[in-house]
Request: fold
Amino acid sequence: MRKILSSLLIFLLFSVSSAFAINPVGEMLERIDKGASKKIVFELKKSDKDFFELDQKGGKPVVRGNTWVNVASGLNWYLKYYAGVQLSWNCMTAELPAVLPAVTKKERHETDLTLRYDYNYCTFSYTMAFWDWKRWEQEIDWMALHGINIPLAAVGAECVWMNMLQKLGYSREEINKFIAGPAFLAWWEMNNLEGWGGPNPDSWYKQQEALQKKILKRMREFGMHPALPGYSGMVPSNAKEKLGLDVEGNGVWNGYTRPAFLMPTDARYNEIADLYYKEQKSLYGTSDYYSMDPFHESSVENGIDFDAAGKAVMGAMKRINPKATWVVQGWTENPREAMVKSMKQGDLLILDLFSECRPMWGIPSIWKRDNGYMHHNWLFCMLLNFGGNVGLHGRMDQLIDNFYLTKNNPLAKNIKGIGLTMEGSENNPVMFELMCELVWRPEKFTKEQWIKEYVRARYGKENVDVDKAWSILVEGIYNCPKGNNQQGPHESIFCSRPGLNNFQASSWSKMMNYYDPRSTEDAAREMLKAADSYRGNNNFEYDLVDIVRQAIADRARIVYQHVMADFKTYDKRAFKKDAATFLNLMLLQDQLLGTRKEFRVGRWIEDARNLGTNKAEKDLYEWNARVQITTWGNRTCANKGKLRDYAHKEWNGLLKDFYYPRWEAFFKSLDKCMNRKFELPHGGNATTYEELKATLNKEQPSGLPEEIDFYAMEEPWTLRTEEYSAQPVGNPIDVAKEIFKKAFERE
Reply:
């Protein structure tokens, strides 16, 4: 009897454990709030249509869906719009009420947009370069909650290349001259550069392989279909000499030698491609989706048979998985029509990368394609952020309008879903919530209607001042209008290399003024009115710091113009006062941002150092982290390539120790210029106008200050180590109040 009871107990325990194991959403909810999975019933139901449903049963809310990702989407909807809990990058845990709100009326959401993609290759470097499993586990939970079922899975791709190149006869030393360092792997994968940031230690490959296997296992438990990097022809630049391959040189990219390109039509292409997929399968298995972007931002054009090249790339992929789909970016000239026009529908999935601003699928834009994507399947994507830059930004009206135009446009008939294709994440959560909800909202709505629900969900309660603040933001900074093609947020003037006519910080942002800079001050003021009633509310405190940060950055842009006017009019007293105000705003900004770990450079650097197994590795990873967000590369890359400050960050520590010294030195040079004394020719005797002009131009060309070698100032900061902590300092609300008062004092 005892044996029977024991066996029964084991059977029951196994049954309970198995039931729980096959419910990844329940496991996720345990990570969000331990014990909470007992409060909600999850049901997986077969359906010929993607759906989630909210219901009530036996005193508990019920979440149903036809896939685990859709069940997770339903859970997220319930948490936001019933329980007042919004999970975001700034916090993926919550304390749910002891008794959850009831679903008084069954609520069902359906969609025909069954494919939902996540990531840009750049995201893996600008945001994820130093993530560990704990952070990735939270990210996969976030993806599930937001309906993502095709995430790009690029972690550990370098491990495939290590194994493949060794089989081709390369030594580890030679391979490490080819593979980039941790913070620059994205541009190596995109055929832009070789070796920069390396060489990587053996431990890097070991830990990244282990990390990718954990990531893929969890993604697949949710029923996601990870898109693995495929092979489209990249080889080391010395492949002609080393392997005897007939390759095309890809030239130079911003000062870096690009990898060579083995034409897919080359006789040995299949050999190399098959070896790549064999090694990838050995490490990570196969995939239903492979991401490849041949000829990405490349000038290689003449004499290429694009049709044959596309068929060769597709053929290699199909040999590893006949059912696989090729994922390709819709970006500038890619995918070239000649390469894909003869491919079968369903074999290709095109990411319309910047649908909210420069859609290529057929509606008017500077990148419009008259034939759209022809017969191929495609996804409506939101790029939003370039370089991982900090800044409030969005195109709410454009995003909503462009998305609902796909409902009745013949060129959009093959739309299959949406995609998040940001270069950097962990910013502007409002835009990502809006984007991910579009698929579940069949009827068009307005941003004004939606933002009220968002604010209530994000903070868990309503407040008239908070509503007013967000109303100001969505009508202004979050509503970049049609015709403005800037890349990402209005960049902080603090983060730009100083000059006499500064506007944007990075070289390619294409910024245009589109909102009143005083409006962010008004929004911050409204948020501060309500701040005391939200103490301890994580989402509110994060947003408050971000909004006050934006207000100060916008004020600094105005003050900068005053400083320049003072200099150009030789108003020395006003110059001294306004320059001091500008510099003080930077220090106030630095103090404010120090109250949240998300805005501290110490978090980025600590994450990098934590991946190292010894001091040399930790220092290498920290150098990668520091260089990427500042000079981006060496002197040639920073100055002539103009990549400096592309990935600038308005972060505590970086403002005070990197950006502040640049501006301080610049203002000193202007002051010196205004106070310079000139000796006239002939010992000061009367001269002709021409002689006087020649002397002035020699001493002070065109009336400009002395040129500053900024790179010589910047590089030493990239070489320093172990100075910054990730731990926040000060209470966000108290410091925000204090800083705002000082920053916006008016005479």
